[in-house]
Amino acid sequence: MLRELHISNLAIIEKVDIEFIPGLNVFTGQTGAGKSLILGALELLLGLRSGGEEAAMFVRPGSAEARVSGVFEIFSREMAERLGGILDQPVSVGEPILLTRRVLASVRSSVLVNGSPVTTAMLREAGQFLVDIHGQHDQQFLLKPANQMLILDSFADAVGKRRQFADTLGQLRDAQRRLRELRESEEKRADQLELYRFQIEEIDAAAPHPAEYDEAKKRYTVLKNLAHLKGLSAEVLQGLSEGEDTVLDRLGVLGHSLQELLRLDATLADTSGQMQQACGMVEDVAKALSRYQDRLEVDPGEFGRVEERLNELNNLIHKYARTPGARPGMAQSANGDPVQAVLAYRTQIGQKAAELESDSQSLGSLDKQIQGLERQLATVGAALTRLRSQAAKRLKSLVEEQFHELEMTEAAFDVEIRTRAVDDAAVDSSGLDEMDFLVRTNPGQERLPLRKIASGGEISRIMLALKTILADKDQITVLVFDEIDANIGDRLGATIGRKMKSLAHGIRPGGQKAGGQTPKAGGQRSISSSKSASVPNGDGAHQIICITHLSQIAACADRHLRIAKDVVGPGKDRQTVTTVRTLEGEERLQELAEMLSGKNPTDAAVAHARGLLQKAQTP
Q1: C-alpha 126: how far from its chain's center?
Q2: Which of 11, 305, 553, 601 is the most exposed place for a label (fewest CB within 10 A)?
Q3: Cα separation, 564 vs 372, whole angstroms
Q4: 118 near 111, Cβ under 8 Å?
Q5: How many other C-beta atoms are found inside a 10 Å radius of the C-beta of residue 301?
Q6: Which residues have a Cβ under 8 Å from the Cβ of 477 and sit 6 or more positions away?
Q7: Which H or E element spans position 590?
Q8: Rounded Cα–Cα distance for residues 359 and 357 (Å)
Q9: Residue 14 and residue 33: Cα distance in Å, rounded?
Q10: What angle do CA 454, 459, 465 make, to 5 degrees?
Q11: pLDDT value at position 251?
C-alpha cells in the first residue's frame, strides 16, 4: 500500500505532504486546483511519465528541481521477491520502500529506491506491480492482453497448469534448438570429427611422453658431435694419465718432495694433505674420462633413430603445442614441456570428438523426444484452454451483473479466446491461446477489445466491475481512479462510491469478505487514521485513491482530502500554490455541501450532505 506521498516544486505545488490510509482515499477540490497534478506526480514517481523535456516542464518556475517521494509497504512475500528481483535489492515484507524521483530543470532526472540508484526502466517495471492507475489507456494493467490472461488464469485456478505448460514448452524449445543446431552443422561436424580423428591417430601413433623432448635433444647433440667428443676426451686423458710426463706423474714427484719437507717441518701437514687430495681428484677425473670414452662407443644406427624421433616430436609440437597468439613451432605449456602441451591438446580433442560422436547419435533420440514433448504440450495446452473457456463463461455472467448495477444496462462483456496450433511460432509460455476482454458499451456497436474503448469514464467503470469480481485474485492492491465519475449522475455516483468502498474493504458482491466471511453488524470496517487502520493483507482488500467531483463518491471515503489553490504574495511577487488538507467533521460536511450546491451552501445542501455521509456508513 501507499503510506505517504511527498511532492515539492512540481508546477503550482510548492510543497505537499499526503498521508494515505488503507481503504478508500478520495480527493476533491475545485476545477484547476491541482487534482490532476497529484495523479501526475504519482505517474512520475512510478516511471509512467518519462524524463527529459516532458518531465522538466513540471518543474516549478524558479526552482532547480522537482521531487516526488512515496513510501510503500508490501504485504505479500511473492510481491516482495518479485520487486526485489526487478530493483536488484532486497525487499522485505512489511518494511517500507522509499521511492524518490528527482527531475531537474536542466532536463536530467534520477531515481532512488531506499537511497540506492535504479534506472527509470527498473522503476517503470516495478511501478506496474505497485499501483494500477485508471485514467490513461497505455498505463492500465488490465488493458494489456497478457495481463488479462494472468487475471483469467488466476480466476480459473489455472496457474499450476500454466506453469506446467511453460515448463514443457521450455523443454521443447531447448530440444528443437539443439536439433536445429545439429542439422545445420551436420556436414561441418563430420569434417571436424574427421580432422579430430586424424590428429588423435597421429599423436597416439607417436606415443610421446613427458620430458622426452629434452632428453632426445640432448642425446642428438651428443651423437651429432661424437667424433669431436672422442678426440677431446682422448686429448685430456692423454695429458692426465696415459702419456709421457703426465699430470699424475708430475704430481707424484712433487708429492714426494712435499713429504720430505713435512718430515723436516711439521707445519706443512695441511699443505701435504691438500697435495694428496689434488692427486686423488686428478685420478678420479682420469677414471671418469675413461668411462666416458667407453660410453662414446655407440651403435652406428642410434644417431639415425634419435634424429628421426626428434623430427617426429618436432612435427607434433609444431602442429599441436601452440597456444593462442604463439607462432607456429613455438611450443608452450604450463610447465615449459612442449610434449606436455601436445598431450593436453590430445585430451581436449578427444573430448570434443566424443561430443561430436554423441551429437551424431543424438539426432534420432532428439526427434523422438521432440515428438513426445509436442504431444505433451498439446495435451496440457488443451486442458489449459478448457479451464480458460469455462472461467470465461463464469466471468462474463459476473461482469454483466456488475454492468447492470453500474447502470451500463446495455453493455455486454466477453472473453475472446483464440487457440493456436502447437507448432505455431507465436506460441509462448502463456499457453496455446491468445485472448482479449471484449466490451460493447452501447447497442448496435460491435464488441471491441477493452483497450480500444474511447471513454475514460467507461473504462474506469468497467475496471471497477472487473476489480470487484477479481479482487481476491488481484496482486496489485493500490488502485487509482481518475475519470470514474465522468458523465454520470448522482444515483450512479452513489453506487460507484459504495462499490469502491466495498472493494477497498475486501467485500465481495453479496456482502461477503473475499475470504468467505460475512461482515459483522455495522458494515464495512471503520478506518479513522493511518496509525489505527488495518492493512490489506491478501484478503481481497485494496487501497483505493480516487479523484472525484461527485459528493456521492466523496461521502464514501475513509479519508477525504481536499485540494485547494490559492494566490499568495504581494504585487509582482504573487504566486499560485496548491495545498492538500485532510477533512473531518464539520469541514468535511461543508465540503460535501459545497460540492452539491456551490459556495455558501444552503441548509438543505448541508442536510443533504449529512444524509450522504450517514448513508455511506450504512451496510
Answers
A1: 12
A2: 305
A3: 67
A4: yes
A5: 8
A6: 1, 75, 536, 541, 542, 543
A7: helix 585-597
A8: 5
A9: 13
A10: 155
A11: 83
* Residue 337 CB contacts under 8 Å (≥ 6 apart), including other chains: 210, 211, 213, 214
What is the Cβ-side half-sphere exposure of residue 72, based on CA atoms within 13 angstroms?
A: 30
Q: What is the dihedral of CA 42, 45, 47, 48, to 10 degrees?
A: 10
Which residues neighbour 253 within 8 Å (Cβ) at sequence distance 6 or greater? none
Which tens digit of pLDDT belongs to each residue from 264-283? 888 888 888 888 888 888 88
Quick one: 324 exposed, middle or buried, by C-beta within 10 A (0-12, 13-18, 19+)? exposed
- Which has the higher per-residue pLDDT, 32 or 539? 32
CA-nearest of 151, 141, 146 to 391 is 151
- For residue 265, how far is the Cα from the chain centroid? 97
Residue 549 class from Cβ within 10 Å (0-12 exposed, 13-18 middle, 19+ buried)? middle
Instruction: Return the H-helix or E-strand segment holding 111.
Output: strand 109-113
Q: Which of the four pLDDT bands, split at 50, 70 and 90, describes residue 456?
A: low
**pTM of the predicted model as reported, rounded to 2 decimal places:** 0.61
Mind listing the pLDDT tens digit for each residue in 551-579?
A: 999 999 999 999 988 887 777 777 778 88
DSSP letters of 40-68? HHHHHHTT-S--HHHHHTTBPTT-SEEEE
Interatomic CA distance for residues 388 and 235, integer angstroms: 105
pLDDT of amino acid 375: 94
Distance between CA atoms of residues 512 and 359, nearest Å:
61
Sketch out the chain's domains with CATH numbers: 1-135+482-584 (3.40.50.300), 189-352 (no CATH)
How crowded is residue 280: how many other Cβ atoms within 10 Å of its Cβ?
Answer: 11
Closest CA to 24 of 473, 493, 481, 604: 481
183 phi and psi angles, rounded to 5 deg:
-70, -40
Integer Cα distance of 488 and 550 in angstroms: 9
List the grid coordinates of 206.
607417436
- Least confidently predicted of 253-257, 532-536, 599-603: 532-536
Question: What secondary structure letter does DSSP report for 267?
Answer: G
CB 73 within 8 A of CB 96: yes
